[in-house]
């Protein structure tokens, strides 16, 4: 497979990264808002594992609860593991395992090469399922750390630093949700939203009334928008924070969410001090126990850096496309001049043949004129694709054989073959050989000239046949100057089987093998 140009490779990598970040953002927001209605710790942990699996496109995810009495972890919840392991399987919590190190140090651990790790041992549970890489982040608690949230992968796609951010966001929501559940068990409170949960998010989160008034903004949101005091924005319509040209988009999203439909968009919105920022915004309804929409949550993630990178990439690609366009125009001009020059040479040779007094000289000059015309046709067909790196050879030959058929009135030239894409460097030799063999068949053979092109592994087989009596016994011993057969043998593949005559049929058939690569 041909390598992508550098700008295409960069664009593809950026698009994949952006797509993954957007997916993780959306999942993190959905998880944070959905668990506001969860009143079971088991359901909370199960939903967290599902969110991690979806956000990291990983088959395996788990929550490990620390057991101080045995100084081990127990597999409290998970996705992808055997059901019998959930709630029963214990793992070491010491500093020699990735999860234990994350728990003890309080810091995330990313390992993309578990099989070759020297700092950690690979737990039996992971080895049994063929796990190659893992991320572990601590799930904090009050007063002690609860355990570890872990994502595991058995494929070859590395985890990244941005994946750690996503996993930490899920772990923070788990921590704050457990705090809320503990408070509910003591007070029986049934809050529509938890301040502690929303303040744990690194995004700007606003809780709005159904008419769009700001009822709450988390601490990180105030910092992100350079707002000193919530009192400066509390009660105002959230669309008033946006520029005039963006407000209809915000109001449309709020209206749809108030009807129960989540919405996502991107747009520019400066901070209170005028710093230009771009935001990825998710707007979702908050439902109460009877599934009625009571409030709307708006989550803004700062994507300014990504947006600037995309603009730089777009400018780079545009510049490259402009340069390629200029090069294509220059190539077209070169090809046009070459074609005109070949036509001029052909005309001069044909004119000289008509003026030659010697019949033998006239014949050779006319043959040379015909061959130049053939080369011109090959050149014209070859560069119709503006110098493409690869071209459909069958389509290319179809146009070329149609040109050759015009040389002899009353004779038909047909082409058979499926689409075969070849590098441009292989097309010129293929075209010249085909033109030479078809021209010979039209000159010395009879009836319809049939051309067939087929591919087998790394070889392309060209067959040219007509309805004549077959080739002489001494063929391919050259007749006349022998230039035509020398061209064929020069441009064909190497080896004794490169050019062969099929004498098993009662008509003329010649086969030529070309390397396909």
Provide keyphrases for this structure.
five-stranded antiparallel β-sheet, 21% strand, six-stranded antiparallel β-sheet, alpha+beta, 44% helix
Account of the 3D structure:
This protein has 517 residues and is α+β, with helices and mostly antiparallel strands. The protein has 13 helices and 18 strands. The chain has a 6-stranded antiparallel sheet with strand order 3-2-1-6-5-4, with helices on both faces. It has a 5-stranded antiparallel sheet with strand order 8-7-11-10-9, with helices on both faces. Strands 13-15-16-18-17 form a 5-stranded mixed sheet, with helices on one face. The model is unreliable at 188-192 (pLDDT under 50).
What's a quick, concise take on this entry?
This protein is of the alpha+beta class and 517 residues long. The chain has helices spanning 6-34, 41-55, 98-105, 124-128, 161-187, 195-199, 219-224, 247-258, 304-355, 359-382, 393-405, 424-444, 483-491, and strands spanning 60-67, 72-79, 90-92, 109-111, 133-139, 147-153, 204-208, 214-217, 263-268, 278-287, 293-302, 390-392, 413-416, 421-423, 449-456, 459-466, 499-501, 508-515.
**How many runs of DSSP E, i.e. beta strands?**
18
Sheet with most strands: 6 strands, antiparallel
Strands side by side in the biggest sheet? 3-2-1-6-5-4
Cα-atom radius of gyration: 37 Å
Q: What percentage of the residues does DSSP assign to strands (E)?
A: 15-25%
Write down the overall geometry: elongated
- Residues in helices, as a percent range: 40-55%
């Amino acid at each position: 497979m041909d390598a992508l140009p550098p700008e295409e490779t960069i664009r593809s990598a950026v698009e994949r990264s952006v797509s993954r970040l957007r997916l993780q953002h959306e999942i993190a927001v959905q998880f944070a808002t959905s668990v506001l209605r969860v009143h079971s710790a088991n359901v909370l942990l199960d939903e967290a594992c599902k969110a991690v699996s979806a956000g990291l496109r990983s088959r395996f995810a788990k929550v490990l609860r620390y057991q101080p009495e045995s100084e081990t972890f127990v597999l409290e919840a998970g996705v992808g593991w055997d059901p019998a392991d959930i709630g029963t399987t214990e793992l070491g919590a010491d500093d020699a395992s990735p999860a234990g190190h994350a728990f003890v140090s309080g810091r995330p651990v990313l390992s993309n090469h578990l099989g070759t790790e020297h700092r950690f041992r690979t737990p039996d549970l992971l080895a049994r399922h063929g796990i190659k890489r893992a991320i572990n982040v601590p799930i904090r608690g009050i007063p002690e750390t609860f355990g570890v949230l872990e994502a595991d992968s058995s494929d070859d796609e590395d985890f990244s630093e941005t994946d750690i951010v996503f996993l930490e966001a899920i772990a923070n929501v788990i921590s704050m949700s457990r705090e809320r559940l503990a408070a509910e068990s003591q007070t029986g409170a049934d809050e529509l939203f938890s301040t502690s949960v929303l303040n744990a998010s690194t995004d700007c989160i606003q809780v709005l009334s159904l008419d769009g008034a700001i009822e709450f903004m988390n601490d990180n949101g105030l910092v992100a928008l350079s707002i000193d005091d919530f009192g400066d924005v509390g009660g105002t319509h959230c669309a008033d924070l946006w520029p005039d040209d963006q407000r209809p988009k915000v109001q449309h999203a709020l209206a749809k969410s108030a009807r129960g439909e989540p919405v996502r968009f991107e747009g520019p919105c400066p901070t209170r001090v005028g710093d230009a920022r771009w935001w990825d915004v998710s707007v979702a309804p908050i439902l109460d126990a009877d599934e009625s929409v009571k409030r709307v949550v708006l989550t803004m993630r700062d994507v300014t850096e990504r947006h600037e990178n995309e603009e730089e990439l777009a400018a780079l690609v545009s510049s490259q496309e402009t340069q390629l366009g200029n090069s294509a125009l220059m190539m077209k001009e070169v090809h046009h001049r070459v074609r005109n020059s070949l036509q001029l040479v052909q005309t001069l040779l044909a004119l000289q043949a008509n003026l030659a007094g010697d019949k033998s000289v006239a014949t050779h000059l006319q043959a040379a004129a015909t061959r130049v015309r053939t080369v011109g046709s090959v050149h014209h067909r070859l560069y119709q694709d503006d110098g493409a790196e690869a071209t459909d050879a069958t389509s290319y030959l179809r146009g070329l054989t149609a040109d050759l058929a015009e040389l002899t009135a009353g004779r038909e030239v047909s082409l058979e073959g499926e689409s075969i894409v070849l590098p441009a460097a292989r097309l010129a030799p293929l075209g010249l050989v085909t033109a030479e063999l078809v021209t010979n068949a039209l000159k010395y053979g009879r009836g319809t000239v049939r051309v067939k092109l087929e591919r087998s592994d790394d070889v392309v087989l060209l067959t040219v046949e007509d309805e004549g009596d077959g080739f002489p016994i001494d063929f391919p011993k050259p007749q006349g100057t022998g230039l035509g057969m020398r061209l064929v043998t020069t441009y064909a593949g190497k080896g004794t089987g490169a050019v062969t005559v099929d004498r098993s049929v009662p008509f003329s058939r010649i086969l030529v093998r070309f390397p396909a690569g």
